[in-house]
Amino acid sequence: xxxxxxxxxxxxxNFLSSVCIFKNRDxxxxxxxxxxxxxxxxxxxxxxxLLSPLLKGGTPSNxxxxxxxxxxxxxxxxxxxxxxxxxxxxxxxxxxxQYLNCEIIDxxxxxxxxxARKLGRNVPMxxxxxxxxxxxxxxxxxxxxxxxxxxxxxxxxLVKRAEEALYSLTRINADLSNARICLIGxxxxxxxxxxxxxxxxxxxxxEELVFPPYxxxxxxxxxxxxxxxxFNDGVLEDGVIQLCSAIAxxxxxxxxxxxxxxxxxxxxxxxxxxxxxxxxxxRKAVKKIETDYMLETVRTLPLQTKILLYSMTxxxxxxxxxxxxxxxxxxxxxxxxxxxxxLTQRRVSDLLSELDSLGIINSIVISKGRYGRTREMKIDxxxxxxxxxxxxxxxxxxxxxxxxxxxxxLKLGIFET
DNA sequence: CCTCCACCGGAAAGCCGGGTCA
DNA sequence: TGACCCGGCTTTCCGGTGGAGG
Length: 417
Fold this sequence. Notes:
By secondary structure, this protein is α/β, with parallel strands linked by helices. The chain has helices spanning 13-17, 41-51, 73-91, 108-118, 130-144, 156-171, 192-195, 198-204, 216-230, 240-250, 255-271, 279-299, 303-318, 324-337, 345-357, 383-391, 394-397, 399-412; strands spanning 63-67, 95-101, 147-153, 180-187, 207-211, 322-323, 362-367, 373-378.
């Protein structure tokens, strides 16, 4: 390997010699808001038209925007808001824009407090009665004579926990004479409309904008546009962009997914020290995203289901496929070891179907004739990774001690009930 | 062709934590 | 504050069943 003395390895050599694929990686992240949005011209135009009264002292209607994830809702609104603020400064229209992500700011109090702070009031993030904050917002807006646009992203999250905030916000204009508040609600959940109070709904959706999913060609355009900024020239093998777009288009036309796929593919290429992103990297990326997603769901599973899955990982070492009875037997053993009440087999049966529909295991109900009817299942993802994810749970740590013992019993094939 | 295994999966009721209302 | 309700999770009970083996 080392022909001459000058070839001594430095542990950073790998890093130095690695080719630079990315020019700007952040461009492919969700947080990035691009300067222009291909195939959203129509939505931008509509939004601008709907909001333009603000600049002439009029009152725009409230707007409700919906579309699935990755259809550009947030990006479009942010872009339009940015432009609106700039123009408003230029013509001194006193437009104040506040963007709120309701998943993070998820209570009536926080919503109102954030708005109040935006208006320059020093409202503490906790402590005051909610209606006092509401009054504060009202009086401040009024005294400033401001035109305010409030964007409520992921508004469906608010309904469950803070519907009254929505209610008061939609009615606030009635109490204002000088100022105006325009609400823009964004949601990816269509069913959410059914849960909403009829009065709030009608006020909120005076105007509606729909963001349809992108098709494969549109996704390609989006990727190409970002590629220019994100990558150095010529690092993408032919067909990489097409493949990413095609895969994302198959799944709901989600631009976010397409961008993720491209980014992860490039990261894999980089790690492999390849100077080009190739089709094979995309294939690997698909796999990686899939497993990452699966592991994440596994981590959030309730304890009982985790023990159940753990039992299956042990079984998987000895046999490819196993039945409900076998799994239940191991599961019960493990439960008793860590003094957890075992569930009934009936319940376990349901948990197994849930795991099946989550795609973590693969199961079918088969008949083994004389030997009964049962669900036969297998784990077809990476068992080791799965096990590792399960062992992260401190409550399962104990089980490692009994692993050997359990394994021995399994080898003997003894399943007592 | 019948039996009978080993479980499936529906129905209903119990339990529990949290929220609501008077 | 306590009575009450709601929804999710779980248990109990049980009728149902595809097909290997007799």
